[in-house]
Amino acid sequence: MVPFLLVIGGATATGKSGLAITLAQRLTLAADRAAVILSADSRQVYREFDIGTAKPSSLERQQVPHYLIDICDPTETLTLAQYQRQAQALIQQCHQASTPPLLVGGTGLYIDAVVKGLRIPPVAPQPALRRQLEALGQPHCYTLLKQLDADAAQRIHPNDPVRTVRALEVSYVTGQPMSVLQGESPPQYPILYLALDCDSLALERRIAQRTQAMIEAGFVDEVTHLLDKYGPDLPLLQTLGYAEMLRHLRGDSSLAAAQAEIVQHTRQFAKRQRTWFRNRATVQWFDADADDLIDRVWNWVTGAWLSAIASTPPKPPKKPRWSVE
């Protein structure tokens, strides 16, 4: 079996997880090896953040093995470089065992780190340095960046404080411009990259339905438990869904208002995700609402898989040890 990686991306609530499980089951039968799913979600890596991150259920994880979920505590910070190393190691293990791996999620940067082989500067977050830089203000920081790393400044928007501070952080810690340390080393194995999408109204309905399902599954209780255990200053409680629910628990909004805010903010987030994935030229798009979605995707995957096999040069046969010259 030719080693490959199947990537499933797309905006939130487009049905990536369900599609991935079905494809993994079919690939398991086709390859006679148990396919596995590697999560590419920047919040599902954290334990206890379950309902609000739409983490796969225990039943779904029993159907297909899932990895890169619940790998660190909420008080820890998993860097992009750490995620990349773990994902690459798991993919290598899958290939060695002839096990089909599926990389599935909506965190585009996580997927890029694997698919493009991003060279990530090995600099952990520096909270004290970041506070000092943020205190200077974005205009001042961007001016510093143009002086220290003009190439990075050209790629970063003047109104993007997160990337500006990160570039300065890397430059100050390493003594080298971040643009020098960055680059790409794409993997050598074939990558089959698909993404799901649907029209805006359908996506909004999906988001509203999923938000309602989260609340019915006990989202309020989950946030209450996390608030009691970790306090309101936990950074993860300021993320999408949890921040709106936290305001409700503080008495600043009703549950209905919090639910409406979650839907609105999730819709805005999904719009940014769609833009991200549409800027990836190698992505094959599929309509998430197509009646024959599974068959369409399966036909494309098997066709692309066969093409990858055909384009992979065969290894020269090993000379038998018992042969006589």
Overview of the structural elements:
It contains 14 helices and eight strands. It has helices at 16-31, 58-63, 80-96, 108-115, 127-136, 138-148, 150-155, 161-174, 178-181, 200-216, 219-230, 242-249, 255-278, 293-311, and strands at 5-10, 36-39, 66-67, 101-104, 118-119, 183-184, 191-197, 284-287. Helix 10 (200-216) packs across helix 13 (255-278) and helix 12 (242-249) packs antiparallel against helix 13 (255-278). Residues 317-325 have low confidence and may be disordered.
Concise synopsis of the structure shown:
With 325 residues, this protein is of the alpha/beta class.
Helical percentage: 40-55%
Architecture (CATH level 2) name of the largest domain: 3-Layer(aba) Sandwich
Structural class: alpha/beta
- The CATH topology of the largest domain comes to Rossmann fold
Which strand-content bin applies to the residues?
5-15%
Largest sheet: 6 strands, parallel
Number of domains: 2
CATH class of the largest domain: Alpha Beta
SSE topology sketch:
Blueprint: E1 5-10, H1 16-31, E2 36-39, H2 58-63, E3 66-67, H3 80-96, E4 101-104, H4 108-115, E5 118-119, H5 127-136, H6 138-148, H7 150-155, H8 161-174, H9 178-181, E6 183-184, E7 191-197, H10 200-216, H11 219-230, H12 242-249, H13 255-278, E8 284-287, H14 293-311
Parallel strand pairs: 1-4, 1-7, 2-3, 2-4, 7-8
Antiparallel strand pairs: 5-6
Helix pairs in contact: 3-4, 5-8, 6-8, 10-13, 11-12, 12-13
For the structure shown, list the relevant keywords:
325 residues, alpha/beta, Rossmann fold, Histone, subunit A, two-stranded antiparallel ribbon, 8 strands, disordered C terminus
